[in-house]
Specification:
The complex is a heterodimer. Chain A is mainly beta. Chain A has one domain. Chain A is built from 1 helix and 8 strands. In chain A, the strands form 2 sheets. Chain A has a 5-stranded antiparallel sheet with strand order 6-5-4-7-8. Chain A has a 3-stranded antiparallel sheet with strand order 2-1-3. In chain A, a hairpin with a 4-residue loop joins strand 5 and strand 6. In chain B, the strands form 2 sheets. Chain B has a 9-stranded mixed sheet, with helices on both faces. A two-stranded antiparallel sheet of chain B has the order 5-6. Chain B has 13 helices and 11 strands. The longest helix of chain B has 17 residues. Chain B has 2 domains: about 140 residues, Peroxisomal Thiolase, Chain A, domain 1 (3-Layer(aba) Sandwich), CATH 3.40.47.10; about 210 residues, Peroxisomal Thiolase, Chain A, domain 1, CATH 3.40.47.10. In chain B, strand 2, helix 2 and strand 3 form a beta-alpha-beta unit. Chain B is of the alpha/beta class. Classes of the chains: A mainly beta, B alpha/beta. Chains A and B meet through strand 2, strand 4, strand 5 and strand 6 of A and helix 4, helix 5 and strand 5 of B.
Amino acid sequence: MTAPILAYEKPIPEITDLTKPFWEAAKRNELVLQNCKTCRKYQWYPRYSCINCGSRNFEWKKVSGRGTVYSYTIIRQVVANSPAFQKDIPFVVALVDLEEGVRMYSNIVGCKPEEVHIGMSVEVAFAQVTNEVSLPKFKPTASKG
Amino acid sequence: MRGEVAIVGYGETPVSRARVDKGEQRLTAEEYYAWAMELTLNNCGLTKQDFDGQGLGVIGAIWPHSEIWSAEIVQNLGISPKLLLRADHGGASAAALLLQSAFAIHSGLVDIVLCLGADAPMSVQNGSGLRTWRYELDHLIPYGMMGPNSMIAFVMQRHMFQYGTKREQFGKISVAQRYNAGLNPNAYLRNPITIDDYLKSRPISDPILLLDAVISVNGGLGFVVASAKKAKQLTEKPVYLLGFGEKHNYSHGSIYQPDVTVTGVTQAARDAFKMAKAKQEEISFFQPYDDYTAIVLMQFEDAGFCKKGDGGKFVENNDLTLKGDLPTNTGGGQLSAGQPGMAGGFVHVVEAVRQLKDEAGGRQVKGAEFGFVTGLGGLTFGGNLVNSFALILSSEVPK
């Protein structure tokens, strides 16, 4: 797990004071979300105030990691600033609606791009890309789908 | 404010892809500002001194070296206005500047505003793509999201899923706008295309094909906004702002998991039609913001030309070319004429003004009386577009 991963050439997120708990949890293969301590709504992406009530009081809560594909695209061509993705083409980026009521951008892995469809049940599958960053990706739900 | 302000005239530079190897010009955004000002002033019969103590509006650009960009442009142009506006609404910037100008004129602060938009995305060296939203850098780009192509792909995919919209229906928009572009000497792409050409165009980000997307160009445009009284002194054919609406950060349904097939145009258009006391059937032409065919299709629904979900059928059953009942993007729009970066929304406003002044030459919509224009800008996290504007422009102010 902790062996250095060499030459990961793709863009990685900047880990900030705001997002550190998220990426720390991801390293443990746990998906956590900001949960508002005032109105108890979850939100994604991480922000400094609650988009429902405006509160600045949050805690990070572990969530189910289960969701459904709301929409998706199969990437066929890279743009000028994304050459590192060239060798992955074709690959899927999806909007995943989590059970906790938020929407995430992520990749669908563990199946062929053509098998991805709207409404597909998926679950989180972490991909460690550097020593600091594990990206939450999603794969088809094992039991049913 | 119905009919209280009017557009006097306009300017539009030739566009370029900065292909020096093909003999095209490679200019900076600063130069396009100067050129757009010259053309706009000449068209209006005004000098830049006429704007000292009046208003100047500029927009954000992909190019600029400084964040305090309006300070650079106002010095470059040598104008000393009383009011300096800068719109920061992406593709909606032209509509935003028009409304900000209208509010300033309504308040009595100024009587006339010069609005300019220019950008040179094709002259920018590598690395420009990194100037984007923090959340895009951290939570989209690491997954290989390819910018607007991929973001609107989600929208188009969802529209096809929810309403059964067909690829050919999106394609018809691309084909019709290209036909219109053939009659616009300043359009970058003028060669006619067929549905077959569309279907065979390169897949970019499913279901988005090359011919679903805008073509990026360099260019500069401008228009002058004035009080109705002042406008009548300056031109025989003022183009009146009859109605408007705007909405920002609209979510259809849940703010966390919105329905991406509905845009803020639903609210902006409703307000614009109400203020203008106009109906959809009275509209002579439509200049919808067109970064992608799907965004055009959804606006027929959201602006009330058909029911939600019927956009595909509407496109199929109507001729969107200059020969049809609702000519759409009469100069080819951004899909064919080209998107000059952040100035893209000027294409729609300027074309509407040209049509309503009866100056569109071979692509003139005969007897054009009411023009409907939209401006959309800024991609939403998990949605569609952040800023929505709707404008109804007219050659007269009906009772």
